[in-house]
Write the structure tokens for this entry.
Amino acid sequence: MKLKTLIVYYSEHHGNTKKVARAMAEVLNAKLLKTQDIDLGIISQHDLIGFGSGIYWGRHHKQLFDIIDRLPNQIYKKAFIFSTSGAANKSMSFHEHLKSKLSKKGFEIIGEFSCLGFDTAISESGINKGKPNDKDLNKAKEFALNLLSK
Ligand SMILES: Cc1cc2nc3c(=O)[nH]c(=O)nc-3n(C[C@H](O)[C@H](O)[C@H](O)COP(=O)(O)O)c2cc1C
């Protein structure tokens, strides 16, 4: 059965997460919406929802949390989480707050993805120049395709 997929993202620093969100949406044939453009009713029209943003002060952006707060409790709704960050996030520790929030709302988390993103928050010249790059975006696509078997 084909999952109807929606990806909700927030990407303000350098558009890093937007690149990842687009890559995933392309292979999943998903609807792609910024947090700012979300009408809550659209969540119930989809089977699988991806939530992603850059990491700001150790967690996903507040706009994602605000959307989830306003949702009713979910039943049989699958979700995945993604992010880009300045620091490597191998243990997905930056995802914990959002993951817990989604789980409490009743979402079943079926996958998580993160990669580095260009970051000028600390130094003017920045770190992770060119990231996410093609290799990262291919990994994001591969991750997204794997979701379909879960
Ligand atoms: C205000 C601010 C706070 C940030 N805090 C963190 C952080 O706590 N940990 C981290 O690894 N990266 C942090 N970053 C870097 C961003 O997560 C990274 O650049 C990300 O790719 C931005 O995504 P975006 O371009 O989609 O907004 C921060 C960036 C900004 C602007």
Notes: The chain has a mean pLDDT of 96. The beta strands are 5-10, 31-34, 48-54, 78-85, 108-116. The longest helix spans residues 134-147.
